[in-house]
Amino acid sequence: MSYLVLARKYRPQIFDEIVGQEHITKALKSSVQNGKLAQAFLFIGPRGIGKTSCARILAKSLNCKDAPTINPCGKCSACIEIAEGRSLDVIEIDGASNRGIDEIRTLRENVKFASILGKYKIYIIDEVHMLTQEAFNALLKTLEEPPEHVKFIFATTQPHKVLPTILSRCQRFEFSYIPIIKIVEKLKEIAKKEKIGFDENVLFDIARLSEGSMRDAESLLDQLSSFSEDKISSKDILSIMGVVDDDAYFELIQAVKNKDTEFCINFISKLFMQGKDIFRFLEGMMYYVRNLMMAKIMTTQLGDICDLPQDRIEKIKEQSRDMTLAGVISIFSEITATQDMAKKINSFRIPLEVMMIKLTKKDVIPKEAVANEKAEDPPVLEQHREKNFTSKLKLDNIGSLFRSFKKSESVSDTEKPINPEIKQESQQKDGLMDRGNLKSADFDEIRNNWPKVIEVISEAKMSLSTYLQDSRPIGLEDNVLKIGFLKKSLFYKEAAEQRQNLKIIADKLKNLFDISVSLKCEIIDENNSEKPPEVSSNYLDSVLDAFGGRVIQKEK
Predict the structure, then answer these.
(1) Span 244-263, pLDDT tens digits
(2) What is the DSSP string of 85-117?
(3) Could you tell me the strand order of the sheet in which 480-486 lies?
(4) Which pLDDT belongs to residue 153?
(5) Hey, is 167 helix, strand or coil?
(6) Tens-place pLDDT, residues 356-380
(7) How far is CA 430 from the centre of its chain?
(8) CA atoms of 306 and 176, how far apart (whole Å)
C-alpha cells in the first residue's frame, strides 16, 4: 500500500475529532439530533482548519445506515464511500475549476434525481466564492427551493466574494484559527501513534509556524519526520523552514538593550550567510516583540495570550522587566519602517542594518522611565519624556522667560505654506519675548539643536525621524522654516512633506522652542557647504560610519 500522508491519515471522521471548532460541532450535532436541518450550509474560515472535513462528517451523519446520528459508524457502505470521496450521493465540487454556468446547469438537472444509498443527495462545493456571477444566478432558484432530498454545503475562505443573495439562503458557520495549544495536543497524539521522537518545545514551533492551520501543522510534522533520523529537533525546523528560534530573538533583544551594535550587525550578516528567510525573520521578531509588549501590560493569563510554554513565558517576562512599554513599541515602529524601506529599495540587508544601528543607539531602557512608568498610560510617559528633554536643552530663552499667550499653529502644503495666526501684541514691557513670529535667533537655536529635534520626533514616529536624518534647517522667510534635503534623499523629502508628518514636526518644534511656524521642504545643492549643527550625541555617527557618509558643510 502506498504511503498515506499524515494530514489524510488522521483526518477527522466524527464531530468529536474536529479540533478547535467546538462551537461549530455543537450546533451541527444539535441540528442533526433535533432534525432541524437547513437546506444549505456555508462554512467560512481560513485554510486547513476543518471546513471540508466537517462537511463530510455532516454528510455521513445524514446518510449513515444509522442516520440521523451524530456519531456515524464509519463502517457502512455510505460512510466508507463518503470518507474516500467516491460516493454517488455526496458530490464534491471544486468551485475553482467548475465555476461556469454550464457546470451549474448540469448540477440543476442532477438534483432532480433521488439519492442511491442514503436519504439525502448532498452537494459539497469547495471555494464557492470562485463561481462566476452567472453561475451564482443559475444556482439561486435551486438553492431557494431545493428538493427535500437535497442539501448544499458550501465552503469558502473569502465570504465577501459570495453574492448576498446566496449568503441569505444559507446557515452561516464561522470557523476560527485553531489555538496553538490544541494543535500541540493533536500533534503529540499523532507523534505517539507514529512513534515519532521530538525534542522539547519542537511541537510548539511547528504549531506556531502553521499559523492556526491543523493541516499545515500535520504536513510540517510529516516533512520533519522524514528529514530527521532519530527525533525531530529545533535545528531541523530551522534548517528546513529557514526561520530563527526564540533564543536567537532573545539574544538579539539583549544586545539591543546592551547597545551592542557590533553583535547586532554580525547577527544580520549571519542571517544572510545562512540563507534565512528575512521576511519570516521580521515576522518572527515582530511576534516576539509583541509578546514582550504583552508581558508589560498583562498581569495574569499571559500563557493564554502568548500561546507559549511556561518556560518561554518566564524568559520573556524576565527580559521585559527592565524595558519600558514605550521602548518596546518603538521596536515595532523600527520593524515596520524597515519593511517599508525594504519594499522601496528592493533589498533587506541595508534596512536591517540601519534598524539595528538605530535600535542600539536608542535608549529602550531609560532608568527613570522604568522607575516611574505606568503601563496603562503610555501617553503620559511620552509627555514626561518630552518635558525632561526640553529641560536638557537648556535653551536660554525657554522656561521662565515665557508665560501664557495666545497663538495657533498651522502646517501647510509644501507648495504653498500658510502662515499661522499669531498674536502680535508685544510683551516686552513685562520682560517677555514674543514667541509667535520666528526670529533669526530662534532659527539658529533650531538649527543648532536639529539632531535633538529629530531624536524627539523619533519618540512620536520612528519612520519620520528616519526621513529627517539627512535634512537640516536651511532658511527662514515670512515665518516659514525651510528644511533642506539632498537630491539623493528625494524619497525622504516626499515622505516627510506629507501633511501629517509636517504637523508632527511643527508640534515638536512648538513643544521644544515655544514657537508656531509653517514648514516647507526643499531640495538643496549637494555642493552647498553650509556647516550643519554639531551633533552633541552619537545618534547618527554609526549610520555615517556604516555607509561611508559625510556631513555637507558650508563656510561662513
Answers:
(1) 888 889 999 999 988 899 99
(2) T--SSEEEEETTTS-SHHHHHHHHHHTTSPPSS
(3) 472-477, 480-486, 518-524
(4) 93
(5) helix
(6) 998 888 655 554 444 444 444 444 3
(7) 54
(8) 17
Rounded to an integer, what distance in angstroms lies between the CA atom of residue 14 and that of residue 136?
31
Q: What is the pTM of this model?
A: 0.59
Q: What is the radius of gyration, based on Cα positions, of the chain?
A: 32
Residue-wise DSSP of 222-263: HHHHHH-SSEE-HHHHHHHH----HHHHHHHHHHHHTT-HHH
CB-CB contact of 251 with 259 (8 Å): no
Closest CA to 469 of 479, 455, 459: 455
- C-beta atoms surrounding 332 within 10 Å: 16
Lookup result for grid cell 466524527: 14
Residues 285/252, Cβ–Cβ less than 8 Å = yes
Whole-number Cα distances in Å, 330 to 333, 335, 355, 377, 383: 5, 9, 11, 16, 15
| Distance separating alpha carbons of residues 276 and 284, to the nearest angstrom | 12
Beta strands in 63-219 (DSSP E): 90-94, 121-126, 150-156, 171-174, 197-198
In whole angstroms, give the CA distance from residue 389 to residue 212. 45
User: Which cell is 427 given?
Assistant: 510683551
Are the beta carbons of 398 and 513 closer than 8 angstroms? yes
The whole-angstrom separation of Cα 187 and Cα 220 is: 10
The Cα-based distances of 286 to 280, 330, 334, 421 in angstroms read 10, 11, 10, 43
Go through the domains of the chain in sequence order and give each one's CATH number. Answer: 6-174 (3.40.50.300), 180-241 (1.10.8.60), 246-372 (1.20.272.10), 411-421+434-546 (3.30.300.180)
Output the nine-digit C-alpha cell for 511. Answer: 513643544
Exposed (0-12), middle (13-18) or buried (19+): which is 175, by Cβ within 10 Å? buried
Residue-level pLDDT at 108? 83
Grid coordinates belonging to 514: 515655544
Count the helix, strand and coil residues of the chain and give each as a percent rounded to the nearest 5: 55, 10, 40
Residues with Cβ within 8 Å of residue 528, at least 6 apart in sequence: 484, 552, 554
Question: Which letter does DSSP use for residue 519 in this model?
Answer: E
CA distance 267 to 533: 33
Phi and psi, residue 517, nearest 5°: -150, 145
Across all residues in the chain, what is the average pLDDT? 78
Neighbours of 172 (CB within 10 A): 14
Q: How many CB atoms lie within 10 A of CB 272?
A: 12
Query: What torsion, rounded to 10 degrees, do the Cα atoms 21, 22, 28, 31 define?
Result: -160
Q: Which three cell numbers stand for residue 476?
A: 527662514
Distance CA 518, CA 539 (A): 27
Q: Quote the CA–CA distance of 144 and 162 in Å, as a whole number.
A: 15
Give the Cα separation of 308 and 469 in Å (integer).
Answer: 39
